[in-house]
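pls design
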């Protein structure tokens, strides 16, 4: 039966080739789309968490706007000790994030003051890699690092002083002079023009905050373990007035973008599966119409309807397997090529205001999605063949033999 089905499939070579090619191109397009969207999502998450968010954050329990923590953790030492012993935590650091004002003789600009522990911050985020002049804080107790756009607005250069002002913990207005030790460029409007970095100790002195911080930021060995580690950390700090957040809680916009893109991808998959099913259906209906007399002869010679049903279904499986093999090969070649040279997309320009993001996406395989797509193509082909197969097995030999 397998040999007979194979010969029947390629009896009309051109039609079978068109059908299998359309299936293969559809599957290759699905794989390319899956890889492009998942790779873009992966790079988006890596850039967001690697630039400022981190994988895990610990903040005061009463904070509702996670991006702008407005309450302090009075005693950070116990939490510091817990994070130091936590399996899966690669690096962590204490922070104070607060809005303020930075001034120079040329003017003043409102900024987000990000006070960090310099030696730990370089392990948690990648901001030190964007430095184009000077260094990232280093050992300067009163150093400041700012973006090139902000430095241009303030008309300051390396080594010059600026004044940072912010509301202190006691309600007074704190002001302190800092020397520019580094200027960075990320390509992001908000980063380069609105965020400054100063040492945590200097910020605590400026804000009269003692040892208080308003944020812990941690980087994990594996970002996929964020939810699991969130549960474990929450249990360990349950007696303290803090909450444990993952990047999904802080960067909820990225989660929304993911859901939208995944929904769009599902719609595209459904359309392609429908096209594949219609192609199989058309091919088999044409084949059966041309072979009615042939089926009549087979039944007259003793072929049972069930045997004819199996034959037609087997032909659809062969078509689907050839098309799927071609699609997997073509899709893999596309992903390998764009995984090496990159795929230029204007996503970096679209997201540049919010965070640093490249304009080139390097594709990677997402085999669970690819294998699901391949299996779905096979299932769609078999389901589409059921109607033609039932029509073929219900033919009456006498009527089929009279068909011209």
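designed seq:
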């Amino acid at each position: 039966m397998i040999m007979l089905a194979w010969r029947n499939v390629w009896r009309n070579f051109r039609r079978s080739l068109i059908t299998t090619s359309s299936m293969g191109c559809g599957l290759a397009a699905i794989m390319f789309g899956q890889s492009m969207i998942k790779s873009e999502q992966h790079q988006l998450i890596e850039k967001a968490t690697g630039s400022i968010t981190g994988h895990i954050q610990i903040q005061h329990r009463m904070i509702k706007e996670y991006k702008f923590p407005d309450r302090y953790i009075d005693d950070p030492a116990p939490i510091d000790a817990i994070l130091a012993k936590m399996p899966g935590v690669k690096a962590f650091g204490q922070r104070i994030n607060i809005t303020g004002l930075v001034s120079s003789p040329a003017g003043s600009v409102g900024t987000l003051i990000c006070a960090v522990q310099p030696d730990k911050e370089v392990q948690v985020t990648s901001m030190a890699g964007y430095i184009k002049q000077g260094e990232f804080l280093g050992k300067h107790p009163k150093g400041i690092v700012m973006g090139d756009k902000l430095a241009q607005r303030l008309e300051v250069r390396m080594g010059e002083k600026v004044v940072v002002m912010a509301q202190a913990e006691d309600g007074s207005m704190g002001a302190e002079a800092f020397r520019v030790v580094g200027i960075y460029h990320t390509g992001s409007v908000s980063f380069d023009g609105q965020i400054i970095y100063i040492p945590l100790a200097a910020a605590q002195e400026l804000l009269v905050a003692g040892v208080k911080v308003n944020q812990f930021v941690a980087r994990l060995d594996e970002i996929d373990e964020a939810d699991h580690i969130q549960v474990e950390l929450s249990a360990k700090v349950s007696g303290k007035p803090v909450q444990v957040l993952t990047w999904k809680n802080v960067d909820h916009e990225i989660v929304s973008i993911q859901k939208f893109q995944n929904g769009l991808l599902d719609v595209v998959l459904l359309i392609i599966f429908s096209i594949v099913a219609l192609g199989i259906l058309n091919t088999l209906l044409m084949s059966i119409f041309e072979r009615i007399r042939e089926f009549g002869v087979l039944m007259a010679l003793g072929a049972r309807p069930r045997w004819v049903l199996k034959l037609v279904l087997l032909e659809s499986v062969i078509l689907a397997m050839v098309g799927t093999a071609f699609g997997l090969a073509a899709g893999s070649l596309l992903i390998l090529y764009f995984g090496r040279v990159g795929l230029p997309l204007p996503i970096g320009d679209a997201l540049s205001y919010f965070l640093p993001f490249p304009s080139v996406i390097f594709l990677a395989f997402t085999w669970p999605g690819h294998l699901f797509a391949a299996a779905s193509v096979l299932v769609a082909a078999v389901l589409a063949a059921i109607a033609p197969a039932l029509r073929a097995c219900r033919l009456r030999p006498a009527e089929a033999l009279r068909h011209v």
